[in-house]
Amino acid sequence: MSKLKVSDIVSKKGKEKITSLTAYDYITAKILDEAGIDIILVGDSLSNVIQGNTTTIPVSMDEMIYHCKIVSKAVERALVIGDMPFMSYQISLEEGIRNAMRFLKEGNCDGVKIEGGYEILDLVNKLTTYGVPVMGHIGLMPQRVHLYGYKLATDESLIDVAKSLEQAGAFSIVLEKVSYKLAEKITKAINIPTIGIASGPHCDGQVLVFHDMIGLNKQKFKFVRKYLNAYELFLNAVKNYIEDVKGNKFPSLEESYE
Ligand code: KIV
């Protein structure tokens, strides 16, 4: 299995859909990689999914790096992208560059994802100049929830934002909760792939939070297709174990050493 490169992802545009899911740990990353996913995103959504926070804001750089390290260890083929968390790139260009580079140097990632538009162009430009692949992220930006909420993005000005990110050197752009008509226009307007979440079928690729698509998260979202009801399955397995231990049915002698 040979490792995918950024150029392999970019060249899929218009030819083949790009697949992406989140992973925050070794075993999940191994499963996704073996299944043939193209991009594993170590998303700052781990703040919600793993840490139990209500937003992505609390997760720190060190915590992101920790999860990137353990995910990267498992991956042979997929591109591993680390998500730059809140306060890791907004303070200064210098901090943004240092933190982005930590994802490659310490987290063994193949690139970083950054939420933002015109205000991050300098950073994207500098990073790509120095060899750090950048995935943009526009539309709904969860790190800005306190100001904008989780609104659907319909503003056509996003087309120019996407073009600017491409010009600054981004190799792809996540479109989050963008109306599917606008997502289609953006996808047609740029030469780099768009990766959609809650943005309809016309994007060049799709990304979902793994825990949502396997139903480990009990919440229901219109844009998520649940491929498994993992919460129920896990719950029943644990209930069966409790019953077996209490009823002296586990372990059997066959499951014991003589
Ligand atoms: O953090 C994350 O998981 C993300 C995806 C939802 C795109 O940013």
Chart the SSEs and their pairings:
Blueprint: H1 6-10, E1 18-22, H2 26-35, E2 39-42, H3 46-49, H4 61-74, E3 79-83, H5 93-105, E4 111-115, H6 121-129, E5 134-139, H7 145-148, H8 158-168, E6 172-176, H9 180-189, E7 194-197, E8 205-208, H10 210-213, H11 230-246
Parallel strand pairs: 1-2, 1-8, 2-3, 3-4, 4-5, 5-6, 6-7, 7-8
Helix pairs in contact: 2-4, 5-6, 6-8, 8-9
3-methyl-2-oxobutanoic acid (KIV) binds at residues 22, 41, 43-45, 83, 174, 176, 197, 207, 209.
Structure, explained:
The mean pLDDT is 98. The protein folds into 2 domains: 6-227, TIM Barrel (Alpha-Beta Barrel); 230-258, no CATH class. Strand 3 (79-83), helix 5 and strand 4 (111-115) form a beta-alpha-beta unit. The protein has an 8-stranded parallel barrel with strand order 1-2-3-4-5-6-7-8, surrounded by 6 helices. By secondary structure, it is an alpha/beta fold. Helices cover 39% and strands 15% of the residues. Helix 2 (26-35) crosses helix 4 (61-74) and helix 6 packs parallel to helix 8 (158-168). It is built from 11 helices and 8 strands. Bound molecules: 3-methyl-2-oxobutanoic acid.
Task: Tell me the span between the first and last alpha carbons.
Answer: 42 Å
Q: Which secondary-structure class do the elements indicate? A: alpha/beta
Tally of separate domains: 2
H and E order: HEHEHHEHEHEHHEHEEHH
What's the alpha carbon Rg, rounded to whole Å? 20 Å
Poorly predicted runs: none
* CATH topology title of the largest domain: TIM Barrel
Overall CATH architecture of the largest domain:
Alpha-Beta Barrel
Tell me the name of the CATH class of the largest domain: Alpha Beta
3D shape: globular
Q: Tell me the quaternary state.
A: single chain
Number of helices: 11
**CATH-defined superfamily of the largest domain:** Phosphoenolpyruvate-binding domains
